[in-house]
Amino acid sequence: MSANVLDDRVRRIVASSFNVPLGEVNTESSDDSLAQWDSLGQLVLILELEREFGLELSPEQGERLRSIVAITDMLSLRGL
Amino acid sequence: MANQEWGIARALLRELVRTAPDSAVTNFVSQQVLQIPQPAPLTRLRMAFLRSFTLEPVVPLLRAEALLYGIELITQMGGFNAYAPELLNHNSQLYHFDADVVVLAIQTRDLLPQLWEGFADLTTVEVEAAELAALRSLSEWISAFRQHSHAPLVIHNFEVPAEPAFGVLDAQSTDGQIQSLQRFNRRLAALAAEHPSAYVLDYDGLVASFGRHRWHDERKWLTARMPVSAHAIPLLAKEYMRFVLPLLGRVAKALVVDLDNTLWGGVVADDGIDCLRLDAEYPAVAHLRLQRAILDLHARGVILAVASKNNPADALEVLETHPKMLLRPSHFAALRINWNDKVQSLREIASELNIGLDSIAFLDDSPVERLRVSVELPQVAIIELPSDPMDYADTLRSCPVFERLAISSEDRDRGRHYWEQRRRHEAMEATSTVGDYYRSLGTRLDIRGPSAQSLPRVAQLTQKTNQFNLTTRRYTEAEIAAFMTEASVFVYEAHVSDRFGDSGLVGVAIIRDAGSVCEIDTLLLSCRVIERTIETAVLSRIADDASDRGLTGVRGWFIPTTKNLPAADFYPNHGFTLVNTENDKSVWELDLRKSRVEWPTWIARGRLA
Q1: How far is A43 from chain B (nearest CA, A)?
Q2: Per-residue pLDDT tens over the stretch B174-191
Q3: Contacts of A41 in chain B (CB under 8 A)
């Protein structure tokens, strides 16, 4: 999967998980830059990533996914 | 035009939700649906969740599903494990929210922690004590809820663990962990049945059908109080819809089915009856299973009809004679087997069955026909069949528009009544004169006084009959019983049967003697038997009985309503003369010294069960 396509999918999932417009999410977004990035949204985000990419994430792995970059890195490491 | 856009959009969005139920998709769907002009305003439903675990991720999916049925959900999540105070305190946020439906979702490990973990340490007596204590709590909560709210209450039942404490030994005793929890669920069902509008959601069954190990995500439970794995969440949303739709009355009364490649494999006009795929072997068994599922809906009170593009003779031959068919012509209340557009067939079926298009569900293997119906008739519930026929039966069985939260004996018999009605219509079309038609029905009429068993039905007929009802006076059971104690009042019941079946108690007359005339306070017939001269026979009996009592006349009223036009000309048609009108009410009389009412020759008098 090309990096751009992957970025787009991840941005879309992040936007819907935290209920923010897609335009407000960019490749630099993280829990620091997005005010809506809260713990319930984090749970929804992990559930969405698991469903969308057919993964299973441990609590430790899920907890580290606090930015778009962290998510795309994790996905690339898993060959996605 | 708006209707059509909504139809197309809904079909596409439904497909999207079915194939990719993630929250990005569902949020998108929700936004789109809210932007399309709707054929009818959205129905708002306030839904409150009382819970012992994280249910928030279910909500976006549930909201999108509901929007596809024109329902806008407004939800409230109760605090974690705060269900008891919420239910008991009349001032809680639950009661302020004023919910239309409330879900009580407690896990086994929260309500019955000893039975979930540590079961091995308990004696049988301790298990029973724990169950009874939990049951008492539930009973208190439900009773408190009923005092403060009339909203339906949907209670999750309690799951059993995937791995019981004693392993395979657990199943060797009726006191094992699994059987103890199953007994608790049976007690919960009995408790719910004691309370009006309390229903059980079979959470244990839902978990089991998906697979207990797959359903659970123990790590997320421990870190985020979310025990349900990502893949199982859409199933919980769908399960809630199976309650939401019947609670709102959004149910399909009738299922209209296609024939070729739906009820059987193959096309009868091309393949011929002998080469259709319909037997107990793979892959033909898929169609047999679908027929079994349709029969089960029929038993639930769903009316069946056929809309098929076919030569009528070919299709009827299969319906009547194919040895493997489970569905026969007698199961169908209406048949449209022709080369007409299915949209037209569906319109005709709705009108023949006298139900709205919004009460119809449509089952057809062709995505093209489904899309066309969904665009032209957005009110019709389309059953989106998957591509593999092996999945047809389960898709139909899980369709929420067929869910019922209660079933009456009337529901069970409904299909038969509609079929009998169709046979009568066909008989009328086949006979040349009206008299021949009446004679061909072989009608038998039993007119008699009420019994204790029939009183509720007599009262119900006065309350529900609108069309053939001369005065539309509504009476309770107690009022009817009081009439029966008065010497000058006569209550008649009309029981009807014919060669197509027994229609039961379908008419009521209430007569009061006043001086030298008898007055008809009430005369009504169920719409099942109107236009068959039953009313003439009943009037004949009333007049003859009055003569026998030495009276000289019969007096009756016609009080018009918006619905009783079919009864408007009843008195003038039977030789009565108009004696008075007050406002729109008219008074009619028949002089028994000069005339009588003839009993129709085609109706036999007889004693019916």
Answers
A1: 7
A2: 999 999 999 999 999 999
A3: none
Residues of chain B contacting A, Cβ within 8 Å: 22-24, 27-28, 54, 56-57, 60, 219-220, 222-224, 226, 229-231, 233
| Rounded (5°) CA angle B444-B447-B449 | 150
| Nearby residues of B35 by Cβ (< 8 Å), 6 or more positions away | none
Number of A to B CB contacts under 8 A, please give it: 52
Q: What pLDDT is recorded for position B460?
A: 83
Cα(B261)–Cα(B389) distance, integer angstroms: 9
What chain A residue is nearest to B30 in terms of C-alpha separation?
Answer: A16
State the pLDDT at residue B604: 92
Contact check, Cβ <8 Å, B226/A47: yes
- Nearest in space to B255 (alpha carbons), one of B212, B303, B202, B320: B303
Residues of B in contact with A50 (CB under 8 A): 229-231
Provide the shortest C-alpha distance from residue A22 to chain B (in Å): 10
Dist CA B407 CA B354 (whole Å):
21
Cβ atoms within 10 Å of B340's Cβ, excluding its own: 12
Q: Dig out the tokens for B411 from the structure.
A: 């529901």
Q: Are B86 and B144 in contact (CB under 8 A)?
A: no
* Contact (CB, 8 A) for B604 and B443: yes
In this complex, do A48 and B230 lie within 8 Å of one another by their Cβ atoms?
yes
What gap in Å lies between CA B229 and CA B227, rounded to an integer? Answer: 7
What is the pLDDT at residue B193? 93
Among the residues of B431-503, which ranges form H helices? 434-441, 455-464, 477-485
The C-alpha atoms of residue B554 and residue B547 are separated, in whole angstroms, by 9
Nearest to A54 by CA among B231, B408, B99, B416: B231
Query: Is the pTM higher than 0.80?
Result: no
Q: For residue B72, give Cα distances in angstroms to B63, B68, B290.
A: 7, 9, 32
Residues of A in contact with B56 (CB under 8 A): 40, 43-44
Radius of gyration of chain A measured on its C-alpha atoms: 11
According to the model, what pLDDT value does residue B1 have?
A: 41
Residue B428 is predicted with a pLDDT of 73
Low-confidence ranges of chain B (pLDDT < 50): 1
Instruction: Give the span between the Cα atoms of A55 and A33, in whole angstroms.
Output: 26
For residue A50, give the nearest of B60, B223, B230 by CB distance.
B230
Per-residue pLDDT tens over the stretch B472-511: 998 988 889 899 999 999 999 999 998 878 888 999 999 9
How far away is chain A from the Cα of B79, in angstroms, using its nearest Cα?
14
Is B226 in Cβ contact with A43 (below 8 Å)?
yes
pLDDT confidence bin for A53, thresholds 50/70/90: confident
**Residue linked to tokens 């999916």:** B61
- Distance in angstroms (rounded) separating the CA atoms of residues B425 and B183: 51
As given in the structure block, the two tokens for residue B110 are 């929260």
B370, B387 Cβ separation under 8 angstroms: no
A35-74 residues touching B, CB cutoff 8 A = 39-40, 43-44, 46-48, 50-52, 58-59, 62-63
CB A48 to CB B229 under 8 A? no
Q: How far is CA B118 from CA B109, B179, B480, in A?
A: 11, 16, 61
Q: Give me A13's structure tokens.
A: 């999932």
Nearest CA of chain A to the CA of B24: how many Å? 5
Q: Which of A16, A43, A63 sits opposite B54 (nearest CB)?
A: A43
